[in-house]
């Protein structure tokens, strides 16, 4: 009896085809789960689902794009940009990828790069008002007010009742000193949304510049009624009252502006002027002194090691909250695990010197001991040796690239030393690997 044998190459192709089909099915399942979780607001769960989809099919642009959106919703804009980069690399014709990447770049104050992305999105989808609006905002941040005005006008042409754009165009006209022209935009916003305090404040500010002081006060009264903590409106109303020689009323507004923002040197100046008019020259001089000193308070500051939002006390708090791994390992012949665990115990009893000596010995005996490098890095950071701590974190990550806690600790240390971008990218990687406290740090310190 004869047997038929298939060529090996045919068997391999069948097997490869089956495996590919299975991977695609898995990717589709994870992708759908990610979409579902995104819709329900579970962005951490969505991120993990899209990561699984990418693992099953690393060539699918929508998986990277949607993971980028999940990261952006977790305020991890640096991590989102990396995913948008990959999505665009795979599909350079998707306007939403450029639009979303531009938004995340804007959130990082990289407005020139954001402007380029918005322009590309407009090329691909010229009827989308959102891209024009976002490009207008970026141009405003770059003080390109005439270009911004054109973009906002185009947005309104495509979407006539777009309240944020009408307001933004009004503010842009103010920047161009077209105060009369701004009134129509602010008035249209008020017609569409009578509860928008900023529109009354904006129109009041323009009326102030046009010398219509009583009308300005009427608008600023409404702005303050709707937003009682708007220090700028109190200042502007005080200025309008000063112009109408209501110095007592103006002083009350300047007091409130200063209570809301203690560094409002213009309010100190205005209050000093009113005090002088009311005969309180000593008080006037004191306010003028404060106005002068506050205006120049930042001159001559010296550079510090911990520069930025993460100061030394903040760093200590974030680092000390990290839970070290406490899984027992089998004792090897070199007994490095014993040195390591004795170091952990010594550290908990504040015997830092003894703990460091034990960690040095553990690393000497086992140079691939990633946990020992990480723990020594934690001790170094605790003692103020942040650069040494970073070196140990680097070693730990070379040995274990998926060590999420190490990315977290290295991220907060780098941020504290002024490398905000590098620190936040480390926090992003930590979160991507599943260490959820990273997203709280990103929300607090990376935006």
Describe the structure.
One of its GO terms (cellular component) is cell outer membrane. Keywords: Repeat, Signal, TPR repeat. It is a single chain. With 447 residues, the protein is mostly helical. The protein folds into two domains: 275 residues, Serine Threonine Protein Phosphatase 5, Tetratricopeptide repeat, CATH 1.25.40.10; 127 residues, Serine Threonine Protein Phosphatase 5, Tetratricopeptide repeat (Alpha Horseshoe). 75% of the residues lie in helices and 0% in strands. It contains 24 helices and no strands. Helix 7 runs antiparallel to helix 8, helix 18 packs antiparallel against helix 19 and helix 19 packs antiparallel against helix 20.
Strand content: under 5%
Distance between the amino and carboxyl termini: 75 Å
- CATH homologous superfamily of the largest domain, by name? Tetratricopeptide repeat domain
- Second CATH tier, the architecture of the largest domain: Alpha Horseshoe
Total domains: 2
Q: Supply the CATH class of the largest domain.
A: Mainly Alpha
Q: Helix coverage percent of residues?
A: over 70%
Summarize the entry for a quick read.
The chain is mainly alpha-helical. The protein has 2 domains: 21-295, Serine Threonine Protein Phosphatase 5, Tetratricopeptide repeat (Alpha Horseshoe); 312-323 and 331-445, Alpha Horseshoe (Serine Threonine Protein Phosphatase 5, Tetratricopeptide repeat), CATH 1.25.40.10. It has 24 helices and no strands.
